[in-house]
Amino acid sequence: MGGVMSSVMSDGVGRDERTDAELVRAIRDCDRGALHELFVRHEPWLSLRLGRRCADHAIVDEALQDTFLAVWRKPASWRGEGEVAAWLWGIAIRSLLHQLRPRRNVVERLVRLRSDSAVSSEEEVLARVEHSDVGTALQRLSPELRAVVQATVLDGLTTREAATLLGIPSGTVKSRMSRARHELREALL
Predict the structure, then answer these.
(1) Which residue segment(s) compose the domain that 31 sits in?
(2) Opening angle at CA 96, ends 114 and 125, nearest 5
(3) Which of 26, 102, 122, 148 is most buried (CB neighbours < 10 A)?
(4) Where is the signal peptide (predicted)?
């Protein structure tokens, strides 16, 4: 690869020194090596986070495959703003939703499939702020309101995507989010 900075690690394997942004730009030029490097860097944490939302490894693998296929097909969808990792997460969570869409009662299935020892990212964040004012206010929310906050705020899903994930109408997501905002404001005053 002409002009690509790389170094040799102690085991003799070349390591690509390009930034994530440089890799995405190289993917726009059909650089398969850049796609491979992006995959190597981000697949482990994406797999872990998706696995916390869906215990079916086959569905998670399909979502990951779809994620990197989308990156290959449309690298220009990253506009050069923000972190590449955040862009990848957005693609990955939407790919997971797409895999789950045909299934009825998604939330129930995910709860049944998730092992008792698995802790979601949202639960980790909530555990860290549990003793803060925000944590106390979040814990006081009903499970329905908390689920909407988690889907829309922590996972960054649109109203429609959150509705699909939670198995409720979009209007219900909006009204629950409005109630959650009001309750959080009141609790934090």
Answers:
(1) 16-105
(2) 60
(3) 148
(4) none
This prediction has a pTM of 0.52
What residues have CB less than 8 Å from 111, skipping those under 6 apart?
Answer: none
Give the dihedral of Cα atoms 35, 50, 65, 24; nearest 10 deg.
Answer: -20
What span, in angstroms and rounded, lies between the C-alpha atoms of 98 and 43?
Answer: 18
The answer to whether residue 62 is domain-embedded is yes
What single letter denotes the amino acid at residue 88?
L
pLDDT tens sequence across 77-130: 888 888 899 899 999 998 998 887 655 555 666 666 665 555 655 566 556 655
Residue 165: both structure tokens together = 């994930």
* Percent of the chain whose predicted confidence (pLDDT) is above 70: 76
Backbone angles phi, psi at 6, to 5 degrees: -150, 155
The count of structural domains within the chain is 2
Provide the CATH number for the domain around residue 80.
1.10.1740.10
> Is 68 in contact with 91 (CB distance < 8 Å)?
no
The H-assigned helical ranges of the chain are: 20-28, 32-51, 57-73, 84-100, 106-113, 121-128, 133-140, 143-149, 159-166, 170-188
